[in-house]
């Protein structure tokens, strides 16, 4: 049973910068969970703005950005970043890992925060309580951020990320098929994210 002492929630969240993503993978530039969460927040906020303004969605882009900032809370609270081949090895193992993540999130909120913050933070941090549309947009941004990082590694000649790029692109396409705002972001903003500094600076 996990136990997080009262007042420790923010301290645990700030430790996301201590967790290096992509364990067991060889990478040229390391990425922390803190960096990843920032990337997901930015991407999900842009997607949500597109959804709200172009596709008349009723969700709040600010709520989605905040949910993205906390979407890896369990990793800092005790789970760490587990390799995907292990986490998704079989349904039984995946279910057990999800159960542990949920217990960590609940402990961080209900033990690590004062009682008057519980009702506000639980629907943001505890993934099983996050609004389904918010969670879906954050997941799309999560895969886009991971795809962006994988592409950056692959483009520097790191073949370690070849399969990751293939898998993540398939996931991104599925998100695009479900959410037109994700497709709009992917077609209009994502390409520039893969450009070099010189390409970004050049006015065509």
From TrEMBL:
SUPFAM superfamilies linked: HD-domain/PDEase-like
Gene Ontology terms for molecular function: 5'-deoxynucleotidase activity
Protein known as: 5'-deoxynucleotidase
Pfam families from the UniProt entry: YfbR-like (PF12917)
Keywords annotated in UniProt: Hydrolase
Protein EC: 3.1.3.89
Keyword Hydrolase tagged: yes
Species this protein is from: Litorilituus lipolyticus
Keyword field contains Hydrolase: yes
């Amino acid at each position: 049973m996990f136990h997080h002492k009262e007042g420790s929630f923010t301290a645990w969240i700030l430790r996301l910068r201590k967790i290096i993503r992509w364990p067991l993978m060889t990478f040229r530039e390391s990425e922390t969970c803190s960096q990843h969460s920032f990337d997901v927040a930015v991407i999900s906020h842009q997607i949500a703005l597109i959804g709200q303004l172009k596709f008349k969605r009723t969700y709040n882009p600010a709520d989605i950005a905040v949910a993205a900032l906390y979407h890896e809370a369990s990793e800092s609270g005790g789970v760490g970043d587990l390799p995907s081949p292990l986490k998704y090895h079989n349904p039984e193992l995946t279910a057990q890992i999800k159960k542990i993540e949920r217990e960590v999130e609940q402990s961080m909120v209900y033990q690590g925060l004062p009682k008057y913050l519980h009702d506000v933070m639980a629907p943001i941090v505890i993934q099983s309580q996050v609004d389904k549309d918010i969670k879906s947009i954050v997941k799309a941004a999560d895969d886009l951020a991971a795809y962006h990082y994988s592409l950056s590694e692959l483009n520097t000649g790191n073949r370690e990320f070849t399969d990751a790029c293939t898998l993540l692109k398939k996931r991104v396409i599925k998100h695009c098929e479900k959410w037109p705002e994700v497709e709009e972001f992917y077609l209009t903003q994502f390409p520039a994210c893969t450009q070099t500094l010189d390409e970004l600076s050049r006015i065509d």
